[in-house]
Amino acid sequence: MSKLRIENVSRIFPAVHGGTPTRALQPIDMIIGDNDFVTILGPSGCGKSTLLRMVAGLDTPSTGRILLDGHAVTRPGAERGMVFQSYTLFPWLTIAENVAFGLREKGVPQRERMDIVRQWLERVGLTSFANHYPKQLSGGMQQRTAIARALANDPAILLLDEPFGALDNQTRALMQELLLGIWERERKTVLFVTHDIEEAIFLASRVVVMSARPGRIKADIRIDLAYPRHYTVKTSPDFSVIKARLTEEIRAEAVLAAGV
Predict the structure, then answer these.
(1) What pLDDT does 243 receive?
(2) 62 with 46: CB under 8 angstroms?
(3) Residue of 93, 131, 178, 205 with fewest CB within 10 Å of its CB?
């Protein structure tokens, strides 16, 4: 059974100040199965974040529909955990309170709530920072908190919109390994937006390549690299072959987008 179905979904933004409407996405069809880790790769402005926001229920398709486990997505819901590029933690709450936020909103009893929070803080390596506030943490630690907060709710699917884009290269690589390790243990369904080719390959079981705006699916590539994955796979011949193909796909779209 498929986890997520995107059927004939497009997005057109209304005209502003007498201009013409903006077609962000051409009609798209996509099926994501249980436990898939799918990365969406494309040039800037191709509509990949718009698509993710529609799956999250934060935006509405102009045409088509989105189904999660057979139910239409019409609004945000606890069955979809979202992690953004910006650090969207509540600054007035401690790290433990941030992770517990969704559980408290759902009415999970305090003892159970604290058990879940402790488990997730341990999994992301933040146990000793439970009583700190976000401003006391580095960017990478804040994103670890955001991932723990999303997963503590036990969502059916985890949605990530370039979550490591603001991090330095070393921290980004460590965060990729952390997320991949969590996915290998939890086997959640993941939809991950990125513009980084190596990141897309390293994480994914499938890479979906989008065209320049208006976005459409240009390629859907199965990544046949064995799990569990170690960072050294990035230097392997198989990885290099996939990277070369995707680099050419993305370069062609970037040239089109730039009008060169």
Answers:
(1) 96
(2) no
(3) 131
Q: At a CB cut-off of 8 Å and minimum separation 6, what does 249 contact?
A: 209, 218, 219
Tokens of 34: 């249980």
Mean confidence (pLDDT) of the chain: 92
> What share of the chain has pLDDT > 70, as a percent?
98
Do the domain assignments include residue 88?
Answer: no
Q: Which residues pair with 207 in a beta bridge?
A: 39, 221
Query: Is 84 within a domain?
Result: no
Instruction: Check if the beta carbon of residue 13 is closer than 8 Å to that of residue 45.
Output: no
Helices (H) and strands (E) in the chain, counts: 7, 10
Which is it for the CA torsion 180, 182, 185, 188, positive or negative?
Answer: negative
**Which residues, in sequence order, are CB contacts of 158 under 8 Å at separation 6+?**
81, 83, 150, 151, 188, 189, 190, 191
pLDDT of residue 33: 93
Residue 208: what are its φ and ψ, rounded to 5°?
-100, 120
Q: Which residues of the chain carry a pLDDT beneath 50?
A: 1
Q: Taking the CA atoms of the chain, what radius of gyration do you get in angstroms?
A: 19
